Amino acid sequence: MRFLELAGRRQSDRRYAETPLPRDAIERCLEAARLAPSACNSQPWSFIVVDHPGDRDRLAAAAFSGIYNMNRFAARAPVLVAVVTERSKYIARLGGMIRGVQYSLLDVGAACEHLILQAAEEGLGTCWLGWFDEKAVKRTLGLPREARVDVLISVGYAEEGATREKKRKSLDEVRRYFRS
Amino acid sequence: MRFLELAGRRQSDRRYAETPLPRDAIERCLEAARLAPSACNSQPWSFIVVDHPGDRDRLAAAAFSGIYNMNRFAARAPVLVAVVTERSKYIARLGGMIRGVQYSLLDVGAACEHLILQAAEEGLGTCWLGWFDEKAVKRTLGLPREARVDVLISVGYAEEGATREKKRKSLDEVRRYFRS
């Protein structure tokens, strides 16, 4: 599949079949994430895969209650991946401080998208989740208070396989060619 | 090309041939970026393509002088893309504030990586650049002071075509399967 076709096919899926995922497919998704680039090659990420149904239920209950209820659909995904934003190398953090940019978020964005694109190629549905009770997630996963879980990703076989038309700004709205 | 193969082939290239790039290849890279996912579909990005040699020289001189000198190599790339981080939708900014995460950086990370993966498929070399004089870049491009240019991307035909072995942490170092 050409990359543009893959990028067009990737979409946020919010309904999943109950079919469990084979771990080798999950491993390929994580392998793709592992290969992503990062500032100073810091690789400021780690991935906690929750694919045991009981644990997945506990994590989802913790993550998506109260004001975080809108992402409750993810409780039905056979796999939830908690993406931990790790500290970048000192030189990248120093550079980021001077520049006023948290490079590690750019890096985690790229790595998560690698994971998700590989999932799309595997025929899996995914959804990026940024809206969840992080404290409760960390408690459930036994992570220290200072850990950062900025993203959860739900993964499963999408119940509706059809590719939706993407709603995006036109190319003319988002790019221009500069001439002084 | 399978996605894992593409992810393995993508690498940071720092030496470019002088050959100019056809705009249709640049357009496909931008199209890939345009299709990237983002929090609340905010699409908080825009791309300024600098492919006129005189303008490219002026931008590079502004971006990579003084303490930013280490990225001087990018002055030889036929194309520099300035990636502007735009404001996310209100609801995404509010959510990000509550969660303490700048979602727009995750989004820009995903979109830049789409651009770069498409470039890799086109046989082009690229490099993410986060270390440059942003104020001087904005002045050169006529952007307002409050604009954010968090990333520059250099694009060209890589002078050395060989794929290097990637230095990454092992999968065992970056992922684990959770059991309570």
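The helical segments of chain A are 3-9, 23-34, 53-63, 90-99, 103-121, 134-141, 171-174.
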